[in-house]
Design brief:
The chain is of the alpha/beta class and 396 residues long. 35% of the residues lie in helices and 19% in strands. The protein is built from 15 helices and 13 strands. It has helices at residues 24-27, 31-39, 56-63, 68-71, 75-82, 116-133, 182-197, 200-207, 230-234, 245-253, 272-282, 295-301, 305-327, 374-379, 391-394; strands at 2-8, 41-45, 92-102, 105-108, 138-144, 147-152, 215-222, 238-241, 257-259, 288-293, 333-338, 355-361, 383-384. The strands form 2 sheets. The chain has an 8-stranded mixed β-sheet, sandwiched between helices. Strands 3, 4, 5, 6 and 7 form a 5-stranded antiparallel β-sheet that branches. The longest helix has 23 residues, at 305-327. The protein is globular, with a radius of gyration of 21 Å. The protein starts with a strand and ends with a helix.
C-alpha cells in the first residue's frame, strides 16, 4: 500500500466579499481534488483541541497522528530541530520573527517576506549586538526568510508571547511578552531596534520601497520535545516535503526522511512543480509521502483571497495531479488532502474550527460528496472530533 498526505496549510476560510461570497475552496476549480472528493470520503476534522492555540504546530502534529496533549512542548523547539540546534532540558527556545513596527502597530509580521540572505545578515547583527551589550545565555540562529530562532539558557522563565500574525494592524504594546523572564525578551527586542535602524539591509529595502525589518518579535516559546518515530508509531516509512522549518522539525523528530526542493519558498511563488515531482519520486522508496504547502496560509495572513484560491488550483494541478497519477500505478493506494486549520482572510490569523478533508483510495467508497469545501464537508456527517484519530482512517 502506498499513501500520500497533502497538507494545504490554512486553506479553510469563510465566505469572502472579494470572492462574491464564496470561500477560496469554493472558488478554486481544483478538478483533481474535487474528483477525489466525489470518489472518496469527505468530512471535517478538528485538529486543534479545546484550550490550545490554533497554530500549525498543534494542528499539523494532530493531522499526522500525534496526540498533542501528550507530546506538545511549544512551536519553536520543533523548528529548532529542523535547524539542527541542540537544545538541553533546561533551555528555552523562541521563534524569532523579523517584523515591521510602524506608528505603534504591528504593520507586517514578516517584514515584507524579507529574503533569507537579508534575514541572515540581521540575525548576525543581533548576535553581535548581544555580545557587545554583554548579555549572557542568549544565542540567535538563522532560519528562512523572516523565520529565525533564539535559544535562552535560563531556567527561571515562564513567559507568554503572542504570535505577530495574530495582531497585524493592531497596537503591539499590549502584546509584548509577559511573565517571569519577559524582561530579557523585551530588552532584546529593544536592542534589535537599535541594531537594525541603520543596517545596510534596511537602507537597501527602504531605497527599494520595501518594508524594513526594524524589530524582532518572540513567540512560539517552548522546551525540548520528543516524538515517537513514525515508523515505530504507524509501521510505515515516510518522507516529508516542505518549505518551512516547523514541518521539517516535526519530520526530523519523527525520524522521517526530509526531501529538499529547490525554489520552495513557503509563499505563492513556491516551486509547486518541484514539490510534485519530488513526491512522485519519493513514493518509489517510501510507503508514505507528506507534502506540505504553506502558500494558502500566507495568503490568509495577508488577506489575499484571490491569490489563495489561485494557490489551491496550483496545488491541485502541480502537486495532487502527479502524486495521484503515481499512486494509481499501485494496486493499493490512499490519499488524504486536508488543511491543518483555517486562516480566514477576514481576520488574517488562525482559528480552531474543524477543516474539510478528502480521503480517497483504491479501497475507499464515496460518501456522496461532490467537492472539498467547508459547507459540503460539514453536511456529510463524517466528523473527526480528535484530529489525531484521522490518520487511522488513512493508515488502516
Amino acid at each position: 500500500m502506498k499513501y500520500a498526505i497533502i497538507i494545504t496549510d490554512g486553506a479553510a476560510d469563510v465566505p469572502l466579499e472579494a470572492l462574491d461570497g464564496k470561500t477560496p475552496l469554493e472558488t478554486a476549480k481544483m478538478p483533481v481534488i474535487n474528483g477525489l472528493a466525489k470518489a472518496g470520503q469527505v468530512g471535517t476534522s478538528c485538529n486543534v483541541p479545546e484550550g490550545m492555540a490554533p497554530g500549525s504546530d498543534v494542528a499539523i502534529l494532530s493531522l499526522l497522528g500525534y496526540d498533542v496533549a501528550e507530546c506538545y512542548t511549544g512551536r519553536s523547539p520543533l523548528e529548532a530541530a529542523a535547524q539542527g540546534i541542540e537544545v538541553t532540558d533546561t533551555q528555552w527556545v523562541f521563534r524569532t520573527n523579523l517584523v515591521t513596527l510602524l506608528d505603534g502597530l504591528m504593520a507586517d509580521y514578516c517584514a515584507g517576506h524579507i529574503t533569507t540572505e537579508q534575514g541572515t545578515q540581521l540575525i548576525d547583527a543581533m548576535n553581535t549586538a548581544v555580545a557587545e551589550a554583554g548579555i549572557p545565555d542568549v544565542k540567535f540562529h538563522h532560519g528562512v526568510s523572516y523565520r529565525h530562532t533564539m535559544v535562552l539558557d535560563r531556567d527561571d522563565v515562564d513567559v507568554t508571547c503572542t504570535p505577530p500574525h495574530d495582531i497585524t494592524g493592531q497596537p503591539y504594546e499590549p502584546h509584548l511578552p509577559t511573565g517571569p523572564g519577559s524582561e530579557i525578551l523585551r530588552e532584546l527586542m529593544e536592542l534589535s531596534r537599535k541594531a537594525f535602524l541603520g543596517h545596510p539591509v534596511n537602507r537597501f529595502r527602504r531605497d527599494k520601497s520595501l518594508r524594513a525589518a526594524n524589530s524582532i518579535w518572540f513567540w512560539g516559546e517552548g522546551k525540548k520535545p520528543a516524538l515517537q518515530a513514525y515508523a515505530d508509531r504507524f509501521g510505515v516509512s515516510a518522507a516529508a516535503i516542505t518549505a518551512v522549518d516547523l514541518v521539517r522539525g516535526i519530520a526530523t523528530l519523527a525520524d522521517m526522511d526530509i526531501i529538499e526542493v529547490p525554489g520552495a519558498t513557503g509563499f505563492i511563488d513556491t516551486n509547486y512543480v518541484g514539490k510534485g515531482e519530488a513526491a512522485v519520486e519519493a513514493l518509489d522508496t517510501h510507503d508514505l509521502v507528506i507534502v506540505h504547502v504553506e502558500a494558502p496560509d500566507e495568503c490568509g495572513h495577508n488577506g489575499m483571497a484571490i491569490e489563495k484560491a489561485g494557490a489551491l488550483d496550483d496545488i491541485d494541478e502541480k502537486v495532487v495531479a502527479p502524486v495521484l497519477e503515481r499512486l494509481k500505478q499501485e494496486s493499493d493506494w490512499r490519499i488524504l488532502i486536508s488543511p491543518d486549520h483555517p486562516t480566514p482572510c477576514t481576520i488574517k490569523t488562525h482559528t480552531r474550527e474543524p477543516v474539510p478533508f478528502v480521503l480517497a483510495g483504491s479501497d475507499i467508497d464515496s460518501n456522496g460528496a461532490t467537492a472539498m469545501t467547508e459547507q459540503i464537508a460539514s453536511a456529510t456527517g463524517l466528523t473527526i472530533t480528535r484530529g489525531c484519530e484521522l490518520i487511522s482512517q488513512l493508515l488502516k
